[in-house]
Design brief:
Length: 273
């Protein structure tokens, strides 16, 4: 009589074992390369707190970027216009709307630095779904379903150091969410930023070239600019001017973080419309 017992594993059991096997493998690998979140917490490449941070609603930051402001009115004395009292002074209007996940400080700063310079390029796949709603917001305001997403190119030395163009890779990752279509363009800054004052940085120029630029310009493509961090806004302004000269329509810009954000209690940015 055959007393051998055969153990049968049901599909449900196998499905339950797979996550366990992955976790065992991850824990084993962590003995050699410990998993650590950019904020410093161990045990995961991105901890629950930082994951929650990426679910925040994007905020408008263009009024915090000096280089993006254009003078639209000047008054030497108070005026009454359409029943509204306007004080003496000047009015500025931003060149384009800019949406960011938050301020470039604390955990968000650690995350950006780890992604850009810390070798944690896989974080781009976590940033993409966080930025997709911002791209969609600009697209809806511009009357298009899937705009082209133009990444601000990294300097050649930075690409060589990192091994890839991180903003271009992020644009492709956002494209895979369905929010946009990545459109990397050949762009070269014609003015260096190093050693220049704040006023000089406002005049940054960027030159676009290549067949992709000509095709997008001929189609009057609607585009959204993508960058990692915005400070004065000089780079975004340079890209905006270059894309506009080429014949494209710029709907706005999306960045991971802004050096400054609006202080609570101050007037909000106007709605996108």
């Amino acid at each position: 009589m055959d007393t051998t017992h055969t153990t049968h594993t049901t599909p449900g059991t196998r499905m339950g074992l797979l996550p366990l096997a992955r976790e065992i493998a991850a824990q084993t690998c962590s003995l050699v390369a410990p998993r650590r979140c950019p904020c410093g917490r161990e045990g995961a490449w991105l901890c629950p707190q930082c994951t929650q941070m990426l679910t925040a609603r994007p905020v408008r930051v263009e009024t915090c970027c000096d280089a993006l402001q254009e003078l639209t009115a000047a008054r030497i004395r108070p005026e009454l216009r359409e029943g509204i009292a306007l004080p003496a002074g000047v009015d500025h209007t931003p060149v384009l709307p800019v949406l960011a996940l938050g301020e470039y400080t604390g955990p968000l700063q650690h995350l950006v630095l780890a992604w850009k310079n810390g070798g944690m390029l896989h974080l781009g796949s976590r940033l993409a779904p966080a930025l997709a709603p911002a791209v969609t917001t600009l697209a809806v305001a511009g009357g298009v379903r899937r705009p082209h997403l133009v990444p601000v190119p990294s300097r050649r030395s930075a690409r060589l150091r990192r091994g890839e163009d991180h903003t271009t890779e992020l644009a492709h990752a956002i494209g895979r969410t369905g929010a946009a279509r990545a459109l990397p363009l050949r762009a070269v800054p014609t003015t260096a930023q190093e050693g220049r004052g704040a006023r000089q940085r406002r005049t940054r120029r960027i030159r676009l070239s290549g067949g992709a630029v000509r095709r997008a310009g001929a189609e009057n493509a609607k585009v959204v600019i993508l960058d990692d961090v915005v400070t004065t806004g000089a780079t975004l302004r340079g890209m905006h001017e270059a894309l506009t000269r080429a014949g494209m329509q710029v709907l706005g810009a999306v960045v991971v973080a802004s050096a400054r954000v609006r202080i609570a209690g101050t007037p909000a940015n106007p709605d996108l419309s």
